[in-house]
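Could you join me in thinking about how sequence relates to backbone shape in a protein? We need material for that, and I hope you will provide a protein of your own picking. Once you have written the record down, we can walk along the chain together:

…
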Amino acid sequence: MNEPLLRAKPATINSAEFFARARARLDFEVPPGLVDPHIIPRTGDSGNDRMLEIVAREQPVRPAAVLIPVVDHPEPTVLLTQRSPHLSSHAGQISFPGGKIDATDASPLDAALREACEEVGLKRNFIEPVGYLDLYGTAFGFRILPTVAKVKPGFTLEINEAEVVDAFEVPLAFLMNPENHQIHTKEFRGIDRSYYAMPFAERYIWGATAGILRVLYERIYLS
């Protein structure tokens, strides 16, 4: 199944309004569901919610953090990466900079900033954290806490090819346009579950990355 989602008009807010709304609507309170397996991150899709309940019973919770780096160009972009093909999970997929939260990380924010530096060399002095987005659960047991951040242009990236093979920017306006949000379905143990995809040129953005971008759209553009 491959359907565009057309329930809302394309987003039209400008860069200043985007960051103003993000600052007003997001904060740095860490949700307890990041580490508590009894708290299931709800997605609004009954199949996905059922899948996450099953996963929480069978797998240990794997807390993770990602950075949503919104680059403050006159027309903002989102910095994404393509994961290395040899990785054990999500190999070759389009993703945000990020990874598991280590015991030495002071917070999920600290983990996201560390991973962004390790993966693509994005330095902290270019990053202005704005707040945490909603907790996002995956079929692999990850509980992902995304940090929305405003990134100052002019940075130089250093790709760590052990983790990612490329980094690139996608216009925020494209990602926040619901006409570009496709809904796909797949089966999980007899349960139909949906997921988002946002193909951009030769890049296939899907799964958790597209799902998190959809949550960003709903929080900043719809609420």
